[in-house]
Amino acid sequence: VHQNKLDFFCKLGYSKQDICKVLENLGQEALEDDVLKELIRMGSKPQALESQAQPSSLKLIARGSCSTSPGLKWLGEDDRDSTDHLRPIVIDGSNVAMSHGNKEVFSCRGIQLAVDWFRAQGHTYIKVFVPLWRKEPPRQDSPIADQHILEELEKQSILVYTPSRKVKGKRVVCYDDRYIVKVAYEKDGVIVSNDHYRDLQNENPEWKWFIEQRLLMYSFVSNRFMPPDDPLGRHGPTLRNFLSKKPILPEPKWQPCPYGKKCTYGNKCKFYHPERLHQAQLSVADELRAKIKVPLSLGKEGKCTHSP
């Protein structure tokens, strides 16, 4: 009987010493319920509860802190590149090169300046489209400067040649503008060109909206590629938001009231009044009533003092 009860309570997780003490006090013929009550009264706990009560060896690591253990990672976090929020860039190579060469020379250095500018901004997807016949040796009617830059950009998988061929001595050139708009539209990117692509706008209504909203114009100032700070006009997004997939909202700036202190709208005025910062926002009628009541009350008090 003693061994059976000892095995039973050992399976529950109690230590043999505590069980033997209780059986000695209550006797070998004590009921199991009485033995259990006595164990609880003594403060004896099963080993499973004791292991739960002990502090865990694992430590919680604050989110964002550096951890030396590579195995511990927060769920839902991934190692995406921080440049994923930037839009792909598709550059009209012929337009950029001719603009840098003052519309006289196909200047490949202009393409390199544009690519370097977008690289400095953090863009990883940059494609430049140039007709294939620009690989041919330059001629008098189509001079090319710094042609070796095209080979370097091609090796970096940045430059893409649009197909062209010769048929009976005549060059057959594919429309490179169609490549530029199509790739930029499919990638949801930005077109870098000073061309308006009016023919393609009339051809496809979806391309029309895309060209109007995603065309980034530019200028060259002393070998410096300079896109505008407001690509869509004065009331449009900034250049940073234009190039980002998730635009950053600017902080609200309160526009000062054009009437200033002469404004009669009171608390209904939607503009900013610096002179009303520490004043109660009262309506015009309430302000007039407040101004009128003060002299009247003073006049009444003055009359009361002089009356017998």
TrEMBL record:
Enumerate the PROSITE patterns for this protein.
ZF_C3H1
Q: Which GO terms describe its cellular component?
A: cytoplasmic ribonucleoprotein granule; nucleus
Q: Which residues form the C3H1-type domain?
A: 251-276
Domain of life assignment: Eukaryota
Q: Which Pfam families match?
A: RNase_Zc3h12a, UBA_6
Task: Give the UniProt keywords, A-Z.
Answer: Endonuclease, Hydrolase, Magnesium, Metal-binding, Nuclease, Zinc, Zinc-finger
Q: Does the keyword Zinc-finger apply?
A: yes
List, separated by semicolons, the cofactors it needs. Mg(2+)
Q: Which GO terms describe its molecular function?
A: hydrolase activity; mRNA binding; RNA endonuclease activity; zinc ion binding
| Zinc fingers (C3H1-type), renumbered ranges | 251-276
The record lists the membrane-crossing segments as none
Q: Which InterPro entries match?
A: Rege-1_UBA-like, RNase_Zc3h12_NYN, ZC3H12/N4BP1_RNase_Reg, Znf_CCCH
Family label: Belongs to the ZC3H12 family.
Protein name as catalogued:
ZC12D ribonuclease
